[in-house]
Amino acid sequence: MRDLAAIETRIQELAQAAEAASAAAELLALGEEILEHWVAARGETPTRERREGFRLLALHRQGARGEPSFNACRETCRELVYHHNLITMEPSHPEARRRLVMASLVATHLLLFVAGKMEVAGLGEFCCSSKPLHAAAG
């Protein structure tokens, strides 16, 4: 499993990818890898199951079990799935490039949430804009 910094770098690279559909599929896989970090940090084995057809959603469900504040990233996970679907269902759509950039921003948001959650106990209610996270960065 790559570290979160390597995942962040790859997300940034994918935002500029020439082939939107394969980049979207990789962004979804990176989202899964991000959640695997969270689940593993809790001492659990990441699930291979799917929820609504997506492993990302099953990993989110696993990660939120016993940690209600982790539900703050549920819609971020769903939005990443949404952008993945938009891009892969219509890869030649005139908005494919914009959708790919948006998907990469959503994946970055998920990464920041999980990294912050792992760093600061109780982070989740305020997402990645949490004051303690910004204070540590400054």
Short description:
This protein is mainly alpha-helical. It is 65% helix and 0% strand. The longest helix is centred in the last third of the chain and has 24 residues, at 96-119.
SSE blueprint:
Layout: H1 4-14, H2 20-41, H3 55-64, H4 74-89, H5 96-119, H6 131-137
List the keywords:
138 residues, mainly alpha, 6 helices
Counting structural domains, the number is: 1
What structural category arises from helix and sheet content? mainly alpha
Main sheet?
Answer: none
Number of strands: 0
Low-confidence stretches: 121-134
* Beta-strand residue percentage: under 5%
Query: What form results from the Cα inertia axes?
Result: globular
Amino- and carboxy-terminal Cα gap: 28 Å
User: What percentage of residues falls in helices of 4 or more residues?
Assistant: 55-70%
Q: Please report the number of helical segments.
A: 6
Work out the radius of gyration.
Answer: 15 Å
Order of helices and strands: HHHHHH
What's the overall average pLDDT, rounded?
89
Can you describe this structure?
- This protein has one domain.
- Helix 2 packs parallel to helix 3 and helix 2 runs parallel beside helix 5.
- The chain is 65% helix and 0% strand.
- The longest helix is centred in the C-terminal third of the chain and has 24 residues.
- The two termini are 28 Å apart.
- It is built from 6 helices and no strands.
- By secondary structure, the protein is mostly helical.
